[in-house]
Specification:
The chain has helices at residues 7-10, 15-37, 45-80. It is mainly alpha-helical and 81 residues long. The radius of gyration is 17 Å and the shape is rod-shaped. The mean pLDDT is 91.
């Protein structure tokens, strides 16, 4: 079972927790790549899992950025009227 949950569960977490999880997943991915290069990697499928975890977290963070941008634009339009 992957260490990071599905995207729906990730959406429930605060931004700072997502950033911490992203950093740890990237660190794990680095370590896995190092193990692959040195021939010590036991479970190559774990690399795929971690890459997908990183992508899921990045997607959730980007969704929040876009939502904030849209809120800011909507707020500016409301002030003009």
């Amino acid at each position: 079972m992957p260490s990071v949950s599905k995207a729906t569960e990730l959406r429930e977490l605060p931004d700072d927790e997502l950033v911490v999880r992203m950093e740890s997943a990237k660190e794990e991915l680095f370590n896995l790549r190092f193990q692959l290069a040195t021939g010590q990697l036991d479970n190559p499928a774990r690399m795929k899992e971690v890459r997908h975890d990183v992508a899921r977290i990045a997607t959730v963070l980007r969704e929040r950025e876009i939502e904030q941008e849209l809120d800011a634009v909507a707020g500016e339009e409301g002030n003009e009227q």
